[in-house]
């Protein structure tokens, strides 16, 4: 008799668990089916006018058209993206707050800052990349620097308070890492001048107050076309169609300087998987839109997408494994 009662209890508990699992699974599926029922916010860690901001807004426009719901970009610049990243990590995981992650937020800041208050892998769920672009090393066109060899020779001849300066989009940005890495490669003293956003650093080079900057192609291109900036080398693996006469860093003897800058959407950890999958499908569809492709490519950006959230997660792991030792070797430590 006791055995029968025990078996009945086990069966009842098992049935209850199965029932709960089905309810949760059904609820998640139904929720994803009606999602989104209100506007979605994308937190951008960089200022208005930067590459991250411009390309994210373009994506948001096309996502909104597909989802038939507003997608709003909120800029929260500061501390090289730390402020925005922490806010995004702490947001409610319901699919209504997303984050425009980038190289800096996902594996540069966690290395160079002593404390970041977030874990890029544990606190976020990857969705998909949506854009990439190379950095271009540019100088003011009025300078007597015609090529990278000229710049290296000049940099090596200047030390102390006469050292050449490089502007950056802030500590922890790819422009910061690129400048620090180049300084180490050529064995010269360079002065890092951080700004809130690469566009501000680019404008300072145009004004002649800073000597050089590693700027995203879609930000530097208008100034190159107007003759105000001179490109010396590009960080892509191959020459870019918009700058066919500008050599890659590999061509001029610095293959280590090859770097691809990217942006991708992630969500706070715990966001329902069905919503993550739905957003991935939306991004994949959005970046195929001819209007988005044209706007990205004419500015120097490249549309990107990952076939699944898992594919983006694998990309993040590979990028982190590749760049972590490089960044650590630079010895950058910030509070």
Automatic annotation (TrEMBL):
Alphabetical list of Pfam families matching this protein: TctC
Q: Which top-level group of life is the source organism from?
A: Bacteria
Q: What family does the Swiss-Prot or TrEMBL record give for this protein?
A: Belongs to the UPF0065 (bug) family.
Q: What is this protein called?
A: MFS transporter
Q: What is the lineage of its organism?
A: Bacteria, Pseudomonadati, Pseudomonadota, Betaproteobacteria, Burkholderiales
